[in-house]
Write a structure and sequence with these properties.
Radius of gyration: 18 Å
Order of helices and strands: HEHEHEHEHHEHE
Protein name: Cob(I)yrinic acid a,c-diamide adenosyltransferase
Number of domains: 1
Strand content: 5-15%
Structural class: alpha/beta
GO biological process, one term: cobalamin biosynthetic process
CATH superfamily: P-loop containing nucleotide triphosphate hydrolases
Pfam family, one: CobA_CobO_BtuR
GO molecular function: ATP binding; corrinoid adenosyltransferase activity
Keywords: Transferase
Oligomer: single chain
Helix content: 25-40%
Amino acid sequence: MAQGEPDQVPADGLTTRQRRNRPLLAIHTGEGKGKSTAAFGLALRGWHQGWSIAVFQFVKNGKWRIGEETALRTLGRVHEETGQGGPVDWQVMGAGWSWRRKQGTENDHQEQAAEGWAEVKRRLAAEQHGLYVLDEFTYPIKWGWLDVDEVCRTLADRPGFQHVVITGRDAHPQLVEQADLVTHMTKVKHPFDTGQKGQRGIEW
């Protein structure tokens, strides 16, 4: 595939413009490094296009701020001050969802995950954002905290032009089947294998 041209054109009756301007469900899964990093890269592209960006981190510890979070929050402020790019809303389950009356007091992770997904559903119904990054979202599904049938149905029925990117290992087969874009990160080598801990600027 050269210069973004597809290998084949389906006989679906759609114009090139209609086919191009279709909201995508993307999944970044696998054992390798880079799933979230790639999703946040898409968020940067979306911000440049002026989209409203929403990031929901479903597993990360709220006390651990990664570099992409700082960068995207800063870009959100740039949008507020200058109008450049798009708005950014970053939610971290471990820090307590921002709409909760009491943040960071709930120890039931399953309940927090369900509440986070309920908020995503509300925003999808309201067509609130152009791009949703559901980071580490495969795990609440894998652990049985969320019903995969209901998740797939909600994503399939989302209205308007809303891209969704899901990250995490062990993506459920139903999600993989439904997705428009699936990338499987395969680990070949990793410094962790030789006992090296995570590095500043590489892991966070």
